[in-house]
């Protein structure tokens, strides 16, 4: 091995690389078993966790605008948060105003159309459920259900 090192001009021009292609082939040629780098599953998981959320180098305070123009806030403990821990700021503002998490059938509408304007004065709660049938009895039952759901809430 000493003769290989003495023949080289620069470290990047090592005859080992020229003759064998890479260090692994050279080590195998010398009759040795190459050491493969390995990381334990626990270390790999810790490494992934260390780069998520507030520890991420891309962290910008937990607030960003998505591709639809809505402002999202990082609140992983909120009931309406996504699996990644974010929820729309407009939904958070309405949820805090109502004092409860929003239901799946509820949407928050921006009155002035500006999705970044999340003042409570600009927001209104919409319900997206509809009766499945169009018979009068179905509509009456649906109206009673809506009244029961929202009669004690300050909307």
Supply the key terms:
alpha+beta, two-stranded antiparallel sheet, 2 domains, Homing Intron 3 (I-Ppo) Encoded Endonuclease, Chain A
Written account of the structure:
The chain is an alpha+beta fold. It has two domains: 34 residues, no CATH class; 93 residues, Homing Intron 3 (I-Ppo) Encoded Endonuclease, Chain A (Alpha-Beta Complex). The chain has six helices and five strands, in the order ααααβββαββα. The longest helix is centred in the last third of the chain and has 15 residues. It is elongated, with a radius of gyration of 31 Å. The termini are far apart. The relative contact order is 0.07. The model has no long low-confidence stretch (mean pLDDT 84).
Order of helices and strands: HHHHEEEHEEH
Largest sheet: 3 strands, antiparallel
By DSSP (H or I, 4+ residues per run), the number of helices equals 6
Cα gyration radius (Å): 31 Å
Q: What name is given to the CATH topology of the largest domain?
A: Homing Intron 3 (I-Ppo) Encoded Endonuclease, Chain A
CATH second-level architecture of the largest domain: Alpha-Beta Complex
Distance between the termini: 81 Å
Give me the oligomer status: single chain
- Number of beta-strand segments: 5
Which structural class best describes the helix and strand composition? alpha+beta
Question: In a few lines, what is going on in this structure?
Answer:
This protein has 155 residues and is α+β, with helices and mostly antiparallel strands. It is built from 6 helices and 5 strands; from the N terminus they run ααααβββαββα. It folds into 2 domains: 1-34, no CATH class; 58-150, Homing Intron 3 (I-Ppo) Encoded Endonuclease, Chain A, CATH 3.90.75.
